[in-house]
Amino acid sequence: MAVIYGGYKYFSDNKPVTTYVTEDVAKGTLTQTVSATGRFDSNEQVDLSFKSTGRIEKINVQIGDKVVKGQQLAVMEKGALAEQLRQAEADIQAQKNTLSDMVDKKDTTTKDQRDTQRAIVQKVEAARDGVLRQIRETSIVSPIDGIVIQKNNEAGELIAANSLVLAVANPNDLVIESNIPEVDIIKVAIGQSAIVTFDALTEKDVFIAKVIEIDPASTVIQDVVFYRVKLKIDNADGRLKIGMSCNDDILTAEKNDVLMIPERAVKTEGGKQFVEVLKADGITIEKVYVETGLSGDNGMIEVKNNLKEGEKVVTLTKSV
Fold first, then answer.
1. How would you classify the pairing of strands 146-151 and 26-42?
2. CATH entry 3.30.43.10 includes domain 48-168
3. Is 169 helix (H, G, I), strand (E, B) or coil?
4. DSSP letter for each residue of 269-287
5. What is the pLDDT of residues 229-269, one digit of tens each?
6. Where are the alpha helices (DSSP H) in the chain?
7. Where are the domains of the chain?
8. What is the chain's percent helix, strand, coil content, to nearest 5?
9. Dist CA 294 CA 306 (whole Å)
10. CATH fold for domain 172-246
11. Global pTM?
């Protein structure tokens, strides 16, 4: 608690009064946290699209549907691909027939001719495989077990290549993703705990999380450098949904039973730190050099030496 002391009394009408605002040196637990906003998302999420431009023939799922790995989710019209496949199969058969005739009539063909024909068969088979690959790419198949969390199109719509059609996420592996600015990321480490609250719930609904992943590379958002951090909630329940926004306070450091004072009480002189201590008479000020440690929340800082609990450090001097 701040206390104001009068340092001087009026000795004449021209004599100013100096007052001091002080804070007690306190002992307790000092914590340092990094606060950020985040989003509750699946740690295993895939965005699905078609590799070519075309018209959607059907979409077999809706948002919220459960899907299994390998399940067909959407199909694009095949257009001329079916006819191309029929023609490719016919070409293969024709070239194989030619090769069979050449083998049957070895006396009239050379080995080089037969090898050349075998290469032609391989070439038309490769062309057929290319058509088959394009046909497979007209289907979107789920690569994981999960639920559909996003659907951007309907059957009959023309869709551009690589445009997001569906998103599937694993609902059993949910994490918080937060962007931490570069000035704070050096304080954050894997394994640190965090207190999390969600905008959709009350402030009394508190969840405990741990940092499980820190991106090694930065992301620039509006000219500010951030690093993505993932946190895993220990006590998640059914109220938490994919996409919810949250606030997380990551506990980056903590010290127990330490002396602490307001950071604004610490001054610097010749590269050394000092504080002004108000003596018991409420008038005399003593300069005390100190060594500081952990900078905590709420503007408090650890003091390692030369101060005692209960002493009063000056945070502001006024002359009136």
1. unpaired
2. no
3. strand
4. ETTEEEEEEE-TTSS-EEE
5. 999 998 888 899 888 999 999 999 999 999 999 999 999 99
6. 81-104, 111-136, 182-185
7. 48-168, 172-246
8. 20, 45, 35
9. 16
10. Elongation Factor Tu (Ef-tu); domain 3 (2.40.30)
11. 0.69
